[in-house]
Design brief:
The chain has 100 residues and is of the alpha+beta class. The protein has a single domain, classed as Ybab, Chain: A (2-Layer Sandwich). 58% of the residues lie in helices and 18% in strands. A three-stranded antiparallel sheet has the order 1-2-3. Helix 1 packs antiparallel against helix 3. The longest helix has 31 residues.
Length: 100
């Protein structure tokens, strides 16, 4: 196998591993002191949303909407943070001959 093919195979394997690691990320974020809890995976797919029944009883729909947005946005921020850390870790493993 040529060096070029070997390097391409290595890069493809790293990409597959990175995608798998990112997909495996799970974050949980809350708002309103835990009244709303959002769980998201590394691909930013919302996995669960828990709402304390007490906030629903209050009838304040606008506050509930704001808390949902805050929890989901915080989960997305945490996902970005963890995904970026994974990418940095993988970039540190790449050694391209002639560049380093």
């Amino acid at each position: 196998m040529s060096k070029k093919n070997e390097m391409l195979n290595m890069m493809n394997q790293l990409q597959e591993n990175l995608q798998g690691d990112i997909a495996a990320i799970r974050v949980t974020a809350s708002s309103g002191g835990g009244m709303v809890i959002a769980e998201m995976d590394g691909t930013k797919r919302l996995l669960s949303l828990k709402i304390d029944p007490e906030i629903v009883k209050s009838g304040d729909i606008e506050m509930l909407q704001d808390l949902i947005i805050a929890a989901v946005n915080e989960a997305a921020r945490q996902t970005d943070e963890q995904s970026n850390a994974k990418m940095q870790s993988y970039l540190g493993r790449i050694k391209i001959p002639g560049l380093f």
